[in-house]
Amino acid sequence: MSRKTELQPWQWPDDHWKKLINRVWGGTTYRPKQWKNGARCAVALSFDSDHETNELRDGGTSYGRMQWGQYANRVGIPKVLTFLEKEAIPATFYVPAVVALTYPDEQRRVIKEGHEIGIHGWIHEVNSTLPYEHERDLMLRAADALEKITGVRPVGLRTPSWDFSRDRLLIEKELGVLYDSSLMGDVDCYQLLLDGEDTGIVELPVEWIRDDAAYLLMQRFGSLRPYIAPADIFDIFRREFDGAYAEGGIFQLTMHPHVIGYRSRFWILEELVNHIKAHEGIWFATHADVAAYAKQFG
Amino acid sequence: MSRKTELQPWQWPDDHWKKLINRVWGGTTYRPKQWKNGARCAVALSFDSDHETNELRDGGTSYGRMQWGQYANRVGIPKVLTFLEKEAIPATFYVPAVVALTYPDEQRRVIKEGHEIGIHGWIHEVNSTLPYEHERDLMLRAADALEKITGVRPVGLRTPSWDFSRDRLLIEKELGVLYDSSLMGDVDCYQLLLDGEDTGIVELPVEWIRDDAAYLLMQRFGSLRPYIAPADIFDIFRREFDGAYAEGGIFQLTMHPHVIGYRSRFWILEELVNHIKAHEGIWFATHADVAAYAKQFG
Amino acid sequence: MSRKTELQPWQWPDDHWKKLINRVWGGTTYRPKQWKNGARCAVALSFDSDHETNELRDGGTSYGRMQWGQYANRVGIPKVLTFLEKEAIPATFYVPAVVALTYPDEQRRVIKEGHEIGIHGWIHEVNSTLPYEHERDLMLRAADALEKITGVRPVGLRTPSWDFSRDRLLIEKELGVLYDSSLMGDVDCYQLLLDGEDTGIVELPVEWIRDDAAYLLMQRFGSLRPYIAPADIFDIFRREFDGAYAEGGIFQLTMHPHVIGYRSRFWILEELVNHIKAHEGIWFATHADVAAYAKQFG
Amino acid sequence: MSRKTELQPWQWPDDHWKKLINRVWGGTTYRPKQWKNGARCAVALSFDSDHETNELRDGGTSYGRMQWGQYANRVGIPKVLTFLEKEAIPATFYVPAVVALTYPDEQRRVIKEGHEIGIHGWIHEVNSTLPYEHERDLMLRAADALEKITGVRPVGLRTPSWDFSRDRLLIEKELGVLYDSSLMGDVDCYQLLLDGEDTGIVELPVEWIRDDAAYLLMQRFGSLRPYIAPADIFDIFRREFDGAYAEGGIFQLTMHPHVIGYRSRFWILEELVNHIKAHEGIWFATHADVAAYAKQFG
Known about the structure:
4 copies of one chain form a homotetramer. By secondary structure, chain A is α/β, with parallel strands linked by helices. Chain A has one domain (about 25-295): Glycoside hydrolase/deacetylase (TIM Barrel). Chain A has 12 helices and 10 strands. Chain A has helices at about 15-25, 55, 65-85, 95-100, 105-110, 130-150, 165-175, 210-215, 230-245, 255-260, 265-275, 285-295; strands spanning about 25-30, 40-50, 90-95, 115-120, 155, 180, 190-195, 195-205, 250-255, 280-285. In chain A, the strands form 2 sheets. Chain A has a 5-stranded mixed sheet with strand order 1-7-8-6-5. Chain A is globular. Chain A starts with 13 loop residues before the first helix and ends with a helix. Chains in contact: A-B, A-C, B-D, C-D.
């Protein structure tokens, strides 16, 4: 009664691992020769407004971590929005529905100031652990909640924790989103295939390398710590931009209001924008605009 | 027989997560236009005198870690007090009752030299795991022990490990403390609300970013290590101060005698104080004085 | 009924630990007075093309990690091959059979451009956990698969995760490989002994110190993070080379297309090659060529 | 039937935690006004020759880690001894009996070249987990083995992993050693008290801060990594020395042949010795000599 799923990976018949590899596959690369208005490099900044939901998702018992939400709402988001307005840079915010429902005015300000809001799950759930029906229900309700609060229907999404699954992609296809920004298969946008079939969805790829939380989170009773100097993080982000500029590609960056929004860290973003603006031919755009442009002209 | 507590967070009805978020909430921000005597920036240094209690709390079986207490008492605290006296800086020491009972003379010297002692639990217990009655009993006994030894009743506290709970805040309210310094919801002082009601307690917020132990602790049989260069820690603390000074706010810092009190680390504090003193309009004060001033004039 | 294997290590009779230590032992050092064409220092660069197999080996459930394969094939490997061609440097690629079967054209390009491909397991299995017959079967099939795809029979191998065992060495001996590159017993090549007997296999030693993945991997739900600045990794690799050059030895380096192949990291390899080429008497060679030369002239 | 040991630490009666704290306590500080021949600062370098025993202690199943022994014997120890001879510096080597029995010539060379060998357990066992009789038996046999191989009876010891216990100290007292070098209660030598009674043993304190392994070890299937730049480790060690020199104390350092003995790391020790020798009034001495001097004149 040995079943495939009970076999060890090294015992799998070839068709099994081939099916797994093929499930979520990158198709055509979407790489425009140039970006909007002849720009050489697209810069897509994003902020994941997780607030209380990382802790709620884990049970909501730590009031210390829960205060990340207070901090993000009181200090982080205002700091980010003020900066983006001063620099006249549009950005994308990925917001779990629970955060939008708790802080609706914050989301309305984000939209009013010209930014994009994308879907980011219901309560930052680990979607790969959910049954399909529940995941689908949460995602549909999340899209509706964001639309109801902000008046704008989201056209893109980022999975919480960049945790992906086949179900996930099925639901994204049903939702008819323009783009996903959760996978790491390239530096350029690419076509997402599900079991070999085009889903019509553009992937605007992310990377832990370009994520502030990968370097700066900490867990009191674990061993995650912000071990790397902010100056070293700046250097990594800067090199990622320099490479994107040299290749005429996309510089995509992920930040979190409760991670980057501190006095000893926010300068990383400020100095990075200074560095980027010292270059000719930069197109600062939301993830939606970059994905749409890449799909059309790439 | 499905009960709320058995539901997964992504299945919670909205009123459940709303209740959790609302439980410990930050109300009014207390931000004075200027600090005492017209100072531009308040500097609140603190030292958590945990000594043997981190290890005792975990069972007291590691005599290696237990010697942190010896080190703190023989080397760390004298080094800190000598330095503070030379620089004429008042600071706040958070002391578990077990430490005060083991090293009473140390506490009396702290008070005699003009510093504040705040409550820091009985034996550095993880309070969120305790039944309410036990937590309450420990906290009341801790306050009494500190008062009996030093002759001064503490007016503020810091939860061990910055571990917070609803019970915690209830007990703090009953104790009638002026302030708490365990939460991370802002950079300024703020009003603490319990289930939406004012507790009368001021929060003087802390951050792992401004905590020496977050960067420098190590556990032999785990993977915590002091992976970051002391010069990088200095740079983080310096930037935190620079931001506080630029905004006219508070620079709050948490240290530990058994963490900062080493030859390769203590220079961080010395150089930081040099850097701070090179600025005009600094008010060095205890946490109690900063909290009281913020509440009155903020 | 107490059996040896049930004893604690500190209870083992001496013959037991002696047997364990003696099992895989380094014999004669193979250290040529000079390298090919009178070169002073041999430089052996290698790339482990693990692609999807690290995740498949763990169950294949994370589509995020699975995309490492997409990235390595779309971006990493082309970047590496283009660079090696420009610099005219031969290198060695260790490729699990599952990767070769998924990306056969990639392997054929590697061979066509003058590089070596070595065995790297079937699906990056943790070989020390496998029964002998299974491990043997996987290794023989892996050798055949690589030969069938590329037309060249591999002469060397590297165990996935540098995980070694007595069985492993038995199978390597049966396969009749020229060399192994998985152990860390020296800085020079050396003879591999199995239970005291010569296996005829040369060890070309590796080290975590000279492995990009040791510094740069991350696991979302663990605490592995890329905590060290790329500039510091460059400095470590450079010092390893400088030492090898000073001693007239081998500079061996292990990289991964899905680790080094990013805009903020690839400069480490570029700058390292610049640094190396600024020295006289460098012999860039595949692992097979270095091992063969060391065995013949060492 | 509630027994003390079943109580949570926060429920312990005061006499219980007092007993635990008092068990291994630091008495009189032994701090000479000056060191031998009027030297201002004592420098005590040590090397823990763990070789294969870290892995054997954990079961001996990883042949990768087991090769640490090969590396230490073939490369690490020769590099260390050659350097110490060139610099004319005596040092102390702590050697588990299993290592001494496996590499007896190595130990005889260490002694012949004027260094000290101290006890370091039988097989690097975690002594705090052993029953008293077993721990005692291992320690006595370890002392005998070292004496038999080298002809010199050890006068000091370091517990493997700096793991201490009350039993440990009882056995040390029975062995009549001059000193222990495993605890961290001070920067100066001090008297070791057991349950308040003098043991006659001097503690020459160590610190993770001054241990190469604390920064540089790695575990393949855990999250320990050498995340810190060698230059930063040098800076930490240098500052520890500078502080010791400024205070006229001891600079004690712990290294491991299989940790420091690499081309990218050994310069830390070389440069450190250069730095130290640029100062007047340095006494390089074995741990035994420093401990004896401190006890006599402190």
